Structures are given as structure tokens and as C-alpha cells.
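Run log, item B.
One chain of 71 residues. Sequence copied directly from the ordering sheet:
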Amino acid sequence: AKFLLVIKNTDFIRELYKDTFRILSFENTYGYNVRSRNERVSEHLIITNIPEGEVPWYRENRSYIHSLDRL
């Protein structure tokens, strides 16, 4: 089955999935911050087993989505 997970970037999460799945990253700036508990700028991971050619939003948004394999 194909799956896609979006989650905040941490060392633990990267290590957990790095050998089994494709990992992409992107930054997001949140406009709302509840009680200043979270940072407004945050890096997220997209963890998936979907081949690169089958993910249309990746092809269209290469400018801000990066493959961790290439970093």
C-alpha cells in the first residue's frame, strides 16, 4: 500500500525512517501561534513510499520541497 506521512523534522524521526522510505523536507511559516508554544517557522518531513515520478505536487513544487537523499 502507498502511504505519505507529514511530520515535524527531528533527528529521531529521520533516523527511524531513513533506511526504508523516501524522505523529503520543506519549511513552513505558521501565521498563528497558540500561546507562543511553537516556533512560527518549522521544517517538516514528508515520508513516503510513493515513487518520485508518481507524486505530482513534488514535480510542481521542487523549489521548496527537497529530497534529503540529495542534501
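Observations after the first pass:
- The helical segments are 11-17, 56-60.
- The chain is about 15% helix and 30% strand.
Flagged for discussion on Thursday.
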